[in-house]
Write a structure and sequence with these properties.
With about 250 residues, this protein is an alpha/beta fold. The chain folds into 2 domains: about 1-100 and about 225-245, Udp-n-acetylmuramoylalanyl-d-glutamate--2,6- Diaminopimelate Ligase, Chain: A, domain 1 (3-Layer(aba) Sandwich); about 115-225, 3-Layer(aba) Sandwich (Udp-n-acetylmuramoylalanyl-d-glutamate--2,6- Diaminopimelate Ligase, Chain: A, domain 1). The protein is built from 10 helices and 13 strands. The strands form 3 sheets. A 6-stranded mixed β-sheet has the order 7-8-10-11-12-9. Strands 2-6-5-4-13 form a 5-stranded mixed β-sheet, with helices on both faces. Helix 2 (about 45-55) runs parallel beside helix 3. The longest helix is centred in the C-terminal third of the chain and has 13 residues, at about 225-240.
């Protein structure tokens, strides 16, 4: 058993949130009971995840997408009231780390996605070095965009969106999990043959065709399922806590 302050210190020491300019507060977002024995990890602090954590008798929840974001109007109504009411009624701590969780070189979303796709990280790119660049661990290349897309689909077990398939071999691959379509131009400038992220917006389809760089959107949630359990599991083992990852399905 530990307490919420020691748990926060362990997460902060590992993820170093002070290094990042983020879209919301990183760390302890909702204060619960002081003693902590069990952590539940998940992608998003949804009502479904909170309810599952309550059923699992958790003392703390660790997520990538927390409750509070820049630009919110601050009113506690509707879905915000419902989520907060559950957390406060059951005295559960909520920890959330956004960009720090994407960026961690071993346990973060990008590193964990790379491990599953069999990609070796060679460098970083983009704002705050959140984007990763590399190639297959065996040093080989994917025959073409279709081969890479098929591999991503097989690993993540979901259909992907592919734009810009010229038929050339794919050697240099860039990736950034979640809603990182805005990093595509930086990936192109870094010399990538393909870019993998969670979402695609209208401009990226044109960039992919005009620059002959493949764009693969594999789902925001699907690309970010791995960092939270990796970090929470690591810290739980370090502090002697029980950890469980709970998957809340999301088609996005």
């Amino acid at each position: 058993m530990t307490d919420r302050i020691q748990l926060l210190q362990a997460f902060d020491a590992l993820l170093q949130p002070e290094r990042f300019r983020d879209y919301g507060p990183n760390g302890l977002q909702v204060e619960g009971r002081l003693p902590v024995r069990k952590i539940i990890s998940g992608v998003t602090a949804s009502r479904a995840l909170i309810a599952a954590a309550i059923a699992a008798q958790a003392d703390a929840i660790f997520v990538h997408h927390g409750l509070f974001w820049r630009g919110q109007d601050g009113r506690v109504t509707g879905w915000m009231k419902q989520r907060l009411a559950l957390l406060l009624a059951h005295d559960i701590n909520l920890y959330a780390y956004h960009l720090p969780l994407d960026a961690h070189p071993e346990l973060g979303n990008n590193a964990q996605l790379a491990a599953r796709l069999g990609l070796q990280v060679q460098s970083r790119f983009g704002e705050q070095d959140i984007g990763f660049l590399g190639q297959r661990m065996d040093g080989g290349a994917f025959a073409d965009a279709a081969a890479l897309a098929s591999h991503v689909q097989q690993v993540l077990k979901r259909t992907v969106t592919v734009v810009g398939s010229s038929g050339k071999a794919i050697q240099k691959i860039a990736w950034c999990t979640g809603g990182a379509q805005g990093y595509f131009e930086a990936a192109i400038a870094a010399g990538a043959d393909a870019f993998i992220t969670g979402e695609i917006s209208e401009p990226q389809a044109h960039y992919a065709r005009e620059c002959d760089v493949v764009f693969i959107a594999c789902g925001h949630h699907a690309s970010e399922r791995y960092g939270a359990p990796a970090v929470a599991g690591h810290v739980a083992a370090q502090l002697g806590l029980v950890h469980e990852f709970i998957e809340i399905d999301n088609p996005a």
